Amino acid sequence: MEAKPKVNGGVKDGKQNRRMPAIHGPTNPMVTPLLTDLYQFTMAYAYWKAGKHKDRAVFDLYFRRNPFGGEYTVFAGLEECIRFIANFKLSKEDIAFIRECLSPTCEDGFFEYLGGIDCSDVEVYAIAEGSVVFPKVPLMRIEGPVAVVQLLETPFVNLINFASLVTTNAARHRFVAGKNKLLLEFGLRRAQGPDGGVGASRYCYMGGFDATSNCAAGKLFGIPLRGTHSHAFVSSFTGPDEITEKSLKSQDGSKVCKDFVSLTQTWLSKLKRLSSSEGVFGETNQSELAAFVSYALAFPNNFLALVDTYDVMRSGVPNFCAVALALNDMGYRAKGIRLDSGDLAYLSCETRKFFQTIEKEFQIPDFGNTGITASNDLNEETLDALNKQGHEVDSFGIGTNLVTCFAQPALGCVFKLVEINNQPRIKLSEDVSKVSIPCKKRSYRLYGKEGYALVDIMSGENEPPPKAGQRILCRHPFNESKRAYVVPQRVEDLIKCYWPGSAEKEREELPTLVEIRDHCMKQLEQMRTDHMRRLNPTPYKVSVSTKLYEFIHFLWLNEAPVGELQ
Fold first, then answer.
1. What is the C-alpha to C-alpha distance for residues 387 and 151, in angstroms, rounded to an integer?
2. Residue by residue, what is the 3-state secondary structure of 348-370?
3. How confident is the model at residue 282 (pLDDT cuts 50, 70, 90)?
4. Selection from 178, 176, 170, 172 nearest residue 211 by Cα
5. pLDDT tens sequence across 109-140
6. Where does this protein act, in terms of pathway (predicted)?
7. In the prediction, which pLDDT does 273 show?
C-alpha cells in the first residue's frame, strides 16, 4: 500500500510547507482530566513522593477476548483519545477538588506539579481506527512519564471500550444482513442515556450502518438521517374528513391535483377490483388512509408508511399502494413501507407479490421494487433467521439490541505496563490469558496469496520487520507447541504515531468519519468468512516472533517466585 505523504510544520507535502491541523477537544464536554478513577491520582502522588513520577513508562491498551462469541473486533474511539490528550490540562478548580479528595498530608508541591502537567512528553502509537483487531495485540501504545500516563488510563479505556464494542456489533449486523441491504440505526430512545445514544449512532455508522434516526448525531458527525412516522401519527387521524388542504402540485410543477384524497380513493377502488386481491382485503381502515394521505401531502418525495397499525395485508399495504399510485400520477415515487410487527418474512414476501401484481396490472414501471423496511427488536439472530426463511426486506431498522450491545455489555479492555526506564515488565497470573506480553513492541499483519489476512505477529521494537516473500516462524505467545511458518505475500505495519507530544509535530492525521467507515469496510473484506461467521467461527491466529517468545518466557521464569516443598 502506497503511503500518503505526511504534512507537518517543516515537512513538505509535495508543493508547500504547512502545519498539521489543530486538534479540537473531545466531542463530549464531560471528557476531562477528572474523568478518571481516584486511584490514578493517589498513585500519581505516590510516584511524585517517591521521585518516580518522571520515570519513562510504556503501557499497552488491549483486550483479552473478542466480544459476542465471535473471533474479531473493530477498533474504535481513537480520535476521541487523541482529542483528549491534545487538550489535557487540569484547571485550578480541578486541582482544588483533587486536593479535597486526597489525604490532608499530601504536600503542596504535588498540586503545583499537577498544575503544570500536560501531554507534551507523551507519545501515542495506535492501530488505525476502524481496523479489525484481535486479542493481545496492542490497540494503543502510550509512552511518557509514568504519573501522567496513568492519569490517561481510565479515560482511554472508557473511550475505547464502548466505541469498539458497538462498532463491532454494527459490523456483525452488517455481515449477517449482507452488503446490499440498507441498515438504519434506530436506537436513541433505548440507549443508555444521551452519551450512549450519540456515541452509538456514531460508531454504528462507522461499523457499516447507513443512517441514523438521531438528529444530534446527524448534526455532530454528518451521519445521514432517516425517519418517517410512528403508530401515534396513524392513530391520531379519524378519517379523510379531517384533511382540509387536499391539493398537490405535480413533481414537475406542470399541474395541480385539487383533490388528492379523491384521487387516492379512486385508486383504492381499482385495487379492490384486482382479481388477485379478492379475499385479501375489503374495506380498509379509513383513518389509516387519512394519515397516509396527510403524510404524502407533506412529503410527496419521501413517502414511506408504517403499515401495521391495524392490519398489514388487509389495510396497511392496500392503503399505502393507493396513496403511492396517486403520487405516481403526479410524478412522484413513493419510498416504501415499514413493517414493525408480525411475521416479517411472510409479510415482506406477500407485500412484494402485491407490489409486483400492481406493476403488471397497471403498467407502473418498477413498482414491484418499492422498498420494504423492517424493524421490531431485530438482532443478529433475527437477521440470520430471516435469511434462512427467505424474505423481501430491503432495509432494516435496528435499535435496542444494537446500541445497548444487549448480547455483551462490555469489551474488557485493559491498560498494562510493559516497560519502565527501558526495563521490560510483565504481569503474571495463574490464568494464562491474563499474562501480559512485555516490552515495547511492533505489530504486523501478514496476508496470503488470496489477499486475506493470515496472522498477526508481534515482535520487539528493535527487531527487523517481517518482509513479503520471507519465511517467518510465528509462535503462540504461551503455548510452545503452537507454531507455524508463514510466507506472506504482503506485510502491513499496524502501529502508527498519532500523538508525538504536540499537534504540530509529524503524525498520522485523524481521518474523517466517512474515511474511517470506508477503512472498516475494506478491513472486513480482507478477513476470511470463516473468521466472521456467527456460529463456530475459526479463531484468528495472533503470534509473536521467536525472539519475543523466548524473551517472554525468560522474563516469566525470572519474575515468578520459586516455591519450596517441605
1. 47
2. HHHHHHHHHHHHHHHCCCCHHHC
3. confident
4. 170
5. 999 999 999 999 999 999 999 999 999 999 99
6. Cofactor biosynthesis; NAD(+) biosynthesis; nicotinate D-ribonucleotide from nicotinate: step 1/1
7. 86
Higher pLDDT, 297 or 273: 297
Tell which phi-psi region holds residue 239, choosing left (phi > 0), alpha (psi between -120 and 50) or beta: left
Strands 441-447 and 453-460: antiparallel
Beta strand 140-145 with 182-185: parallel, antiparallel or unpaired? unpaired
| Backbone φ, ψ for residue 404 (5° rounding) | -90, -5
Grid cell for residue 314:
388487509
Q: How far is CA 245 from the centre of its chain?
A: 44
Rounded CA-CA distance 81/395 in Å is 33
* Secondary structure of 15-60 as H, E, C letters: CCECCCCCCCCCCCCCCCCCCCCHHHHHHHHHHHHCCCCCCEEEEE
Q: Grid coordinates standing for 232? A: 401515534
Q: How far apart are CA 49 and CA 93, in angstroms?
A: 23
CB 350 within 8 A of CB 318: no
Rounded Cα gap, residues 192 and 309, in angstroms: 28
For residue 440, the SS3 value is coil
Coil, strand, or helix at residue 420?
strand
Partnered with residue 472 across adjacent β-strands are 486
Burial 47-57 (b: 16+ CB within 10 A, else e): bbeeeebebeb
Could you tell me the three cell numbers for 179? 452488503
Write out the three cell numbers for 468.
Answer: 513479503
Residues 6 or more apart whose CB falls under 8 angstroms from that of 543 comprise 455, 456, 457, 458, 474, 475, 476, 477, 483, 484
CA distances from 287 to 231, 316, 373, 399 (A): 12, 11, 22, 28
Alpha carbon dihedral 138, 140, 146, 150, in 10-degree steps, equals -100
Query: Is the distance from CB of 354 to CB of 317 less than 8 angstroms?
Result: yes
What pLDDT is recorded for position 50?
Answer: 98
* DSSP state for residue 210 in the 8-state scheme: -
- pLDDT tens-digit series, residues 507-548: 999 999 999 999 999 999 999 999 999 999 999 999 999 999
Residue 8 scores a pLDDT above 50: no
Contact of 84 with 119, CB cutoff 8 Å: no
- Sheet strands (E) in 34-187: 56-63, 73-74, 123-126, 132-133, 140-145, 182-185
User: Using CA atoms, how far apart are residues 452 and 446, in angstroms rounded to an integer?
Assistant: 9
Which helix or strand (DSSP H or E) is residue 373 part of? strand 371-374
Confidence of residue 224 (pLDDT cuts 50, 70, 90): very high
**Type of residue at 164:** S
To the nearest whole percent, how much of the chain has pLDDT over 90? 90
Report, as an integer, the average pLDDT of 414-435: 93
Q: pLDDT tens digits, residue range 154-199?
A: 999 999 999 999 999 999 999 999 999 999 999 999 999 999 999 9
Contact 470, 487 (CB under 8 A): yes
In angstroms, the CA 226 to CA 320 distance is: 19
User: Where does residue 253 rank: exposed (0-12), middle (13-18), buried (19+ CB within 10 A)?
Assistant: exposed
